[in-house]
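Project outcomes to date are best conveyed with an example. Our students and postdoctoral researchers have been running inverse folding experiments weekly, and each run begins with a structure described purely in C-alpha cells. The record below, which covers 199 residues, was selected by the lab manager from last quarter's runs and is presented without edits.
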C-alpha cells in the first residue's frame, strides 16, 4: 500500500476538505451576519469570490489524491459537494460582473455605500444593494469601527428590500433616524430610529 493510500493519508485528506468547507462556511456566515469587512471594496469582492471557489478546490483535491476505496469515497464526496458547487457557480456568475466594475470604479455596484455618518468613535454606513435583474434595490445599514488599517468591525443594524435610497438625521450622540422614501404604491415610506451601542 502506498503512503498516499494509508488511513493516515485519508485522514489528512478528510481534514483538508473539512477545513476548505469550514472556510466557505465562515465567509458565508459573515455575509449573512456581518462581523468584519475591508475598507477596500475590491478586497471584499475578491475574498467573496475566492471563497466561492473553495468547493471546487475540495472536489479537485478529492479526485486527484489517492486513498483507500478512492472511487467510492470520491463519488460520495462529489455527490455531497455538488449542491454547494451549483450554489457557488451561480454566485461566481453573478459576482463576475461586479469584479470588473469594482476594479474600474472602486465601488461595488451590488453593495454601494451611499452615505457614511460619523458618530462617537464609529460610523453608520448606508448601502444600496442590487443583485441584478432578479432583484429590486434595497437598503442595508452597518455600524462600523476601524480596528486595524483597512479592516472594519461591523454590526448589522437594518435592511429593507425594496428601497431605492435613504436619508438620515443624527438626533443625539448615539441616536440616528433613517428615513426611506416610498418605493412604489405597495411599499410606502418608512422611518426608523436607532439607539446605538458604542463599540
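After processing, the design step wrote out the following sequence:
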Amino acid at each position: 500500500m502506498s503512503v498516499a493510500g494509508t488511513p493516515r493519508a485519508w485522514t489528512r485528506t478528510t481534514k483538508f476538505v473539512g477545513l476548505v468547507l469550514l472556510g466557505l462556511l465562515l465567509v458565508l456566515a459573515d455575509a449573512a451576519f456581518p462581523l468584519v469587512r475591508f475598507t477596500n471594496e475590491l478586497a471584499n469582492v475578491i475574498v467573496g469570490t475566492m471563497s466561492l471557489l473553495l468547493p471546487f478546490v475540495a472536489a479537485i483535491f478529492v479526485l486527484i489524491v489517492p486513498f483507500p476505496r478512492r472511487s467510492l469515497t470520491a463519488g460520495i464526496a462529489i455527490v455531497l459537494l455538488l449542491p454547494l458547487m451549483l450554489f457557488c457557480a451561480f454566485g461566481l456568475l453573478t459576482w463576475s460582473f461586479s469584479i470588473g466594475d469594482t476594479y474600474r470604479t472602486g465601488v461595488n455596484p451590488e453593495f454601494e455605500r451611499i452615505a457614511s455618518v460619523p458618530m462617537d468613535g464609529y460610523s453608520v454606513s448606508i448601502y444600496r444593494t442590487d443583485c441584478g435583474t432578479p432583484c429590486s434595490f434595497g437598503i442595508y445599514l452597518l455600524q462600523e469601527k476601524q480596528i486595524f488599517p483597512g479592516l472594519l468591525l461591523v454590526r448589522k443594524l437594518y435592511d429593507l428590500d425594496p428601497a431605492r435610497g435613504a436619508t438620515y438625521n443624527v438626533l443625539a450622540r448615539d441616536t440616528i433616524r433613517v428615513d426611506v422614501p416610498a418605493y412604489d404604491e405597495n411599499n410606502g415610506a418608512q422611518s426608523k430610529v436607532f439607539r446605538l451601542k458604542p463599540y
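The beta strands are 36-38, 111-118, 123-129, 138-148, 151-160, 167-172, 175-180, 190-195. The two ends are 57 Å apart (CA to CA). The training component of this project remains on track.
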